[in-house]
Q: What sequence folds into this?
């Protein structure tokens, strides 16, 4: 079979690709070996500011993030599928996810560090898992939401086709639901990976009461640099992050995006499909491609497994009257569970706190709320005009867009030196001047969404506006602002959610021995965490959760719905 | 084989009804006591207006939805879930955009657990048969509409079904492409090269039904039921210009317009004084245009529907829609496949815009009860405003939510044209005040 021989004979691309694959495997094994050591080894080889250590730190940090990403994907598949396929599960799971989304991630750390450290006493693995879990909580929810929404919106005709051609529910999931959800899922995964950096820095070096854990990684390197007031080290850390972000973008995400372009649900081919040199490289290889054939076959066999899922998970009961009795029992169970949880939460909190504590927490919450509102407004005033200006120039937009995404990955801690030094030097009020740290990483979401909106603004409308002599503020109010509104809202929602999360880091900044604190809910939670004061952590987290949820429901959701209904173009 | 269909029946439908939950109160009956038998070796067409339940019946046979009552059997066994030996072709093609042509075609075989060598062989045969050679590795989005539907056919044929179900398979295609595909399919069928025994197709295109089918069931609406059955024994290939062909098309048009549908019964004969009438949305511009066309030559107020549909490039279903709207407003009369302008219609054709609006208002108030109701409510209320929900609820006593939406949309559009009232979309309120 000459054709097969031809296909198997390696070419030059095979060698390049092989080196890359083996290199990646070696790195993973090397990084993995470090995680199972006893906890005391952390004290023997403490984190040092020597830049020579940074490649290893970067490797370990990246591995934590990728591990968390894998966990998030597994979680997403299971959670989203259950919620989308079972009506009863959906009733509980979707509101739960909504709340989880608004729980401040750093608030989780307090509980999980203790939990995981107790799970593997005296071993680094416990701390590693706690860190991975923190990153996981920052990545998973939006991915799960995206997948759930995709599965719920699978086109009716494709659904009927799978039934008509006798695909089992299991086959249907892998052949229809997963591919259909893929583009949204990948986009959200990339966003999650960017967002994860913020929490890596916060969670690699954490103090909960008497327990202090410092895992080797970029995050703890930054923490140490801040403690030692080493500006050069901060610079090295920024450079390292830059390189790591470029590396995983080029080696991982771009190929995936280019490959996943075929899953985009559209009936006509789009203008410019995304490309990736990495994917092209692998597509040019002969032997490696042949090696992937068994994987493809395995994948096929896996999705064709004859797994019988329960009826409700399969085709939603066709003649469709759900049993009232089962519903009643289900509601009763939910009510009992909620009541039980409420009872214990009340017991625990009321034993340690009283009403005045709640009032204090809410007071701080309102302060932080004020900061979020003012900062979002300021960021809007600055970035909307900039974003529109950039977005209307396609060539420029192409360059600025990835830059904005890159800035979004940078944790606020890296700006501590600048802010703390300035505040101390000019004797500024920390309550005011620490606030910008909250929006440092999140303002970019507004920028790149506005850029996206302005780029998508139809040319004919622009031409109509100029032929009608719409100029100045009229041009903004009548033409451009309504056109980008849905995009702006998407960006603002992300930015506001991120700012709440960031408040826990941003309201307590330090540089060496200088510790500055702004009064607010973030500082309240941060202090309670450091003191190991669990009841107050729970209270602070709950208050933030309530405020964020209310803020979303009362402001963002209606605005979003309005934008989608009235102002969505095309 | 076409002249003598053998008598073993593939599908037996006896007294099948289907209802769907409605916005308020009782269920909406979309299909009432339908009987249908499909024998081996015939092409059966289900012809009817949209909403006449023909697609519902097709989906019951496909096992995609279950009947509310009655028996649906495939080869003597009750249909529970998609039966073996039945494959479906979709109006929207329903191809998986992430699978290549070959993978799309293989999908049905894979689900049956057929091994890969056999799968490949059969898929290539089907692709070959349907004229897709050379496109095996293309993705659907790279293909034109006609080629995509060919993939849809190959995917259905590859499982060698006894019965091929087609849900308006040509209606998403342009006229020329649709015609090529139809004749290709009919040719393969008469040559006996299709690996199937029978075909059941849903259509609202009368000529298509006459061109392809051995038997046509004309559906009546509200609730959907079989109104009449026609045998078509013209020999294949059929010629659209053949007088016998034209005769059949005319007969079918007449049949579809003959009986006044309950939803266009005169005022007062429907419970609730006719408020519960379903109004299909037709733009007032289109109505005016149609009246002008009818009034002018060559029709001079009297048009044969197939001819009119041909000139305006409309499907039977669409032209009937328009005709019914005119009939409802008493601008024209539908009878025996003809559309005849009334005196009012003739006067309307010669009026200026403002005078037309005045006349339109009068006809709306006289003949569309729900318009009168809204006007009355707005006049009586001190604020002269009323939320749309007030009327939507009333509509939903008679019809499903979808129909209520459609009806409301029509009310708003006609009311705005006639300047009978104003409507604010954001607050969903009717009011008498027009913005000046």
A:
């Amino acid at each position: 079979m000459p054709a097969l021989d031809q296909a198997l004979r390696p070419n030059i691309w095979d060698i390049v690709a092989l080196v890359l694959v083996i290199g990646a495997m070696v790195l993973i094994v090397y990084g993995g070996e470090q995680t199972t050591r006893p906890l005391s080894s952390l004290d023997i080889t403490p984190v040092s500011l020597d830049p020579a250590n940074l490649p290893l730190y970067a490797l370990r940090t990246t591995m934590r993030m990728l591990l968390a990403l894998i966990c998030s994907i597994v979680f997403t598949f299971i959670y989203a599928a259950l919620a989308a396929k079972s009506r009863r599960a959906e009733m509980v799971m979707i509101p739960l996810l909504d709340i989880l989304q608004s729980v401040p991630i750093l608030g989780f750390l307090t509980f999980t560090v203790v939990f995981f450290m107790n799970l593997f006493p005296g071993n680094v693995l416990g701390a590693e898992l706690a860190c991975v879990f923190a990153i996981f909580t920052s990545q998973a929810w939006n991915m799960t939401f995206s997948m759930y929404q995709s599965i719920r919106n699978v086109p009716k005709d494709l659904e009927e086709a799978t039934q008509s051609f006798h695909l089992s529910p299991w086959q249907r999931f892998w052949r229809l639901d997963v591919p259909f959800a893929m583009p949204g899922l990948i986009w959200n995964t990339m966003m999650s990976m960017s967002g994860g950096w913020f929490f890596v820095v916060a969670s690699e070096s954490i103090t909960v009461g008497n327990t202090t854990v410092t895992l080797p990684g970029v995050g703890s390197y930054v923490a140490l640099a801040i403690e030692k007031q080493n500006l050069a080290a901060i610079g090295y850390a920024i450079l390292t992050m830059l390189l790591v972000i470029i590396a995983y973008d080029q080696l991982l995400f771009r190929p995936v995006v280019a490959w996943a372009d075929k899953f985009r649900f559209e009936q006509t081919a789009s203008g410019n499909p995304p490309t990736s040199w990495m994917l092209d490289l692998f597509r040019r290889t002969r032997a490696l491609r042949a090696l992937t054939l068994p994987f493809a076959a395995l994948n096929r066999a896996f999705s064709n497994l004859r797994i019988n899922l329960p009826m409700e998970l399969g085709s939603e009961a066709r003649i469709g009257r759900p049993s009232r009795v089962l519903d009643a029992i289900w509601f009763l169970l939910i009510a009992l569970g909620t009541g039980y949880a409420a009872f214990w939460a009340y017991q625990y909190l009321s034993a340690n706190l009283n009403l005045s504590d709640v009032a204090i927490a809410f007071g701080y919450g309102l302060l932080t709320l004020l900061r979020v509102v003012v900062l979002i407004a300021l960021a809007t005033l600055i970035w909307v005009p900039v974003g529109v200006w950039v977005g209307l120039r396609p060539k420029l937009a192409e360059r600025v867009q990835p830059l904005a995404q890159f800035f979004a990955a940078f944790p606020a801690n890296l700006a501590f030196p600048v802010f703390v030094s300035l505040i101390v030097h000019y004797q500024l009020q920390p309550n005011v001047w620490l606030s910008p740290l909250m929006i440092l990483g999140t303002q970019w979401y507004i920028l790149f969404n506005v850029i996206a909106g302005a780029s998508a603004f139809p040319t004919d409308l622009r031409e109509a506006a100029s032929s009608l002599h719409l100029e100045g503020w009229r041009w903004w109010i009548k033409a451009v602002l309504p056109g980008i509104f849905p995009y702006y809202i998407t960006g603002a929602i992300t930015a506001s959610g991120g700012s709440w999360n960031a408040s826990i880091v941003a309201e307590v900044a330090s540089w060496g021995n200088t510790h500055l604190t702004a009064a607010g809910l973030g500082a309240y939670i941060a202090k309670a965490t450091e003191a190991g004061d669990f009841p107050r952590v729970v209270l602070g987290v709950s208050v933030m959760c309530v405020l964020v949820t209310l803020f979303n429901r009362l402001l963002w959701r209606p605005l979003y719905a309005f934008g989608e209904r009235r102002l969505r173009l095309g | 084989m076409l002249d003598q269909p053998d008598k073993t029946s593939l599908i037996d439908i006896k007294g099948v009804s289907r209802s769907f939950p409605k916005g308020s109160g009782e269920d909406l009956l979309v299909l009432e006591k339908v009987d249908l038998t499909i024998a081996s070796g015939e092409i059966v067409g289900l012809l009817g207006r949209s909403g006449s339940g023909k697609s519902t019946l097709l989906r019951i046979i496909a096992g995609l939805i279950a009947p509310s009552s009655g028996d649906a059997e495939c080869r003597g066994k009750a249909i529970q879930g998609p039966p073996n030996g039945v494959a479906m072709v979709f109006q929207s093609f329903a191809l998986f955009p992430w699978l290549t042509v070959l993978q799309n075609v293989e999908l049905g075989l894979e689900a049956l657990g057929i091994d890969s060598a056999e799968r490949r062989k059969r898929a290539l045969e089907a692709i070959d048969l349907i004229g897709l050679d050379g496109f095996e590795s293309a993705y659907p989005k790279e293909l034109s509409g006609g080629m995509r539907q060919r993939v849809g056919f190959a995917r259905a044929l590859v499982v060698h079904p006894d019965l091929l179900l087609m849900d308006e398979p040509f209606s998403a295609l342009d006229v020329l492409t649709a015609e090529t595909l139809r004749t290709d399919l009919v040719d393969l069928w008469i040559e006996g090269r299709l690996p199937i025994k029978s075909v059941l197709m849903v259509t609202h295109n009368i000529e298509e039904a006459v061109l392809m089918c051995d038997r046509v069931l004309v559906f009546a609406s509200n609730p959907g039921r079989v109104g009449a059955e026609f045998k078509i024994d013209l020999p294949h290939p059929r010629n659209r210009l053949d007088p016998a062909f034209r005769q059949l098309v005319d007969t079918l048009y007449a049949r579809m317009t003959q009986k006044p549908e309950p939803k266009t019964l005169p005022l007062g004969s429907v419970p609730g004084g006719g408020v519960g009438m379903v109004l299909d949305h037709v733009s007032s511009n289109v109505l005016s245009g149609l009246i002008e066309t009818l009034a002018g030559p060559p029709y001079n107020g009297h048009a044969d529907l197939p001819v009119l549909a041909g000139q305006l490039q409309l499907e039977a279903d669409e032209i009937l829609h328009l005709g019914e709207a005119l009939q409802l407003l008493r601008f024209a009369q539908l009878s025996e496949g003809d559309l005849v302008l009334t005196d009012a219609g003739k006067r309307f054709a010669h009026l200026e815009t403002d005078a037309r609006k005045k006349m339109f208002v009068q006809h709306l108030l006289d003949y569309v009860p729900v318009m009168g109701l809204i006007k009355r409510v707005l006049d009586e209320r001190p604020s002269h405003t009323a939320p749309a929900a007030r009327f939507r609820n009333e509509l939903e006593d008679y019809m499903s939510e979808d129909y209520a939406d459609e009806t409301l949309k029509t009310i708003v559009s006609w009311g705005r044209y006639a300047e009978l009232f104003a409507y604010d979309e954001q607050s969903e309120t009717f009011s008498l005040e027009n913005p000046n």
Remarks:
- Residues 311-319 of chain A have pLDDT under 50 and may be disordered.
- Chain A touches chain B through 30 residues (CB under 8 Å).
